[in-house]
Structures are given as C-alpha cells and as structure tokens.
Design a protein that fits this description.
The chain has 230 residues and is α/β, with parallel strands linked by helices. 31% of the residues are buried. It has six helices and eleven strands. The radius of gyration is 19 Å and the shape is elongated. Strands 6-11-10-7-8-9 form a six-stranded parallel beta sheet. Strands 3-2-1-4-5 form a five-stranded parallel beta sheet, with helices on both faces. The protein has two domains: 6-104, NAD(P)-binding Rossmann-like Domain (Rossmann fold), CATH 3.40.50.720; 117-227, 3-Layer(aba) Sandwich (Rossmann fold), CATH 3.40.50. It starts with 5 loop residues before the first strand and ends with a strand. The structure holds NADP nicotinamide-adenine-dinucleotide phosphate. NADP nicotinamide-adenine-dinucleotide phosphate binds next to strand 2, helix 2 and helix 3.
Amino acid sequence: MAEREKILILGGTREAANLAAELVAAGHDVTTSLAGRTAEPEPVAGKTRIGGFSGNGRSGTEGLADWLTENGFTRLIDATHPFAKQISENAEAAARLTGIAFEHHTRKPWQQQPGDTWIEVASLEEARDAIPANARVLLALGSQHITPFATRPDVHFVIRMVDPPAIPLPFASHELVLGKPSSMVAEEKALLQRHGITHIVCRNSGGSGAYAKIEAARALGLPVIMVGQD
Ligand code: NAP
C-alpha cells in the first residue's frame, strides 16, 4: 500500500461518499466534513465531522486552515456540490495558507441531448421569470434556493426537499415531496405525471445522482428551466 495519508474530504455529495469509501478501502485515515444542512445525513465510510469552520473570530478559511493543521491532515479534497462556491473558495485558500496537498473534484455540467427542451438561464430569478403563467412546476432546487419563486402566485409548485421545512413555506399554491431525487427514470417520470407537471426548474449540477429527472422530462417532452453554473 502507498503511504497512509490523513485526508479531509469536504463532502455532502454522492461523489464525496464514493471517494471516502475508496480511500478508506485503500487504507487511508479519512474524515468527511459536512455542512450540516440535512438532519440525517447518510453514513459515509471513515470519520465524519459536521458544521462550518468559522467561529471564535476566525473566518471559514482560517478556521479550516486551523482544523487541518491542528489535526495533522496531509491532504484536502474538495468534493462539494458545484454550486457550493463559498466552501470551495475557502478550501483553496486554506490549502494555500497551510501548504497542504489539495485536489478539487468537479463534475462536468450536463449537456443538452437530442429530445431535451431546455430554457437556459443564469440565476434563480431568471428561472422564476421564465415560468409561463399558470404552469405546474417541479422545483428541484433544495430548500435553500426556493424563496425567489414565492412571488409567482399564479404557478403551482411541487417542491422537492430532503427534510420538512422548519417554518411554513410562503407559496400561494404548493405541495411538498420529501426526500432525495430518485436515480430511476421510471420513478421520476411517474412523479412528473402524478403531479401533472408542465415544467421542471433545476440547476445544472452535473453528475448522475440527479440526472434521472432530466431523462424523464425528455421522455415526456417537458421543458426544463435550467440554471447554469457560472
Ligand atoms: P457554500 O455556500 O459553499 O458554503 C457556505 C458555508 O457553509 C461555508 O462557508 C462553510 O461555513 C459551510 N460549509 C459548506 N460546505 C461545508 C462542508 N462540506 N463542511 C463544512 N462546512 C461547510 O455551501 P452550500 O451551497 O450551502 O452547500 C453546503 C453543503 O451541502 C456542501 O458541503 C455541498 O457539497 C452540499 N450540497 C450542496 C448543494 C447545493 O445545491 N449547493 C447540493 C447538494 C449538496 P464556514 O465558512 O463557517 O466554514
């Protein structure tokens, strides 16, 4: 075996969990860091720590640099979601500060395929404004990103989120679908049909875990309002 390393993975994605499993199986000492956004995160191989690194007068970058040094890590891997920009910036800066070996695992954005009807937009606000009047929309964005859509009382939103909301949602007409997206196209298709969805709003996060809804939309000829990565 190559030399045993002490590795911190910034996670919160399926890819990060897969990587943790691989690196643990290869004999490394692996800790995965989660932001703490979901109440019951799925277990990952190795150790887990939860929560941001800022506090006690230290910024997120400084806090992460301290954590890495104090705990003797030899490698930092950023395998966070492509839309998690802040933690990725902090990771790069913390690696510079500490001189620790650093890798950033990115996912390629999805590319439009024959049969896809995408309305490509640059922001959540543009996505909201692109929804036609009286549409029935699957909002597949995660709970942190849905607020801009509350200013569309003409639209019925089917909102998918992992955990139930802590406070009532400010939508005129909505239903909740709790849980993670299915990776099965047939299940995503059935969901779209059951709710009479006319449009999907999502972000182009790439990867395979959330792609089934795109394939389901293609099969049903439904338009996808796709927020791009900047
Ligand atoms: P973000 O905007 O880039 O980060 C905001 C702050 O959250 C960071 O400054 C950091 O706080 C803390 N943080 C983020 N990721 C962390 C991690 N892995 N470990 C410890 N602290 C972390 O991040 P976000 O978009 O809120 O995403 C949060 C997490 O959810 C990420 O780990 C990401 O992989 C996962 N996730 C995000 C999305 C998404 O749509 N953005 C989707 C699926 C999963 P401090 O500054 O205090 O250190």
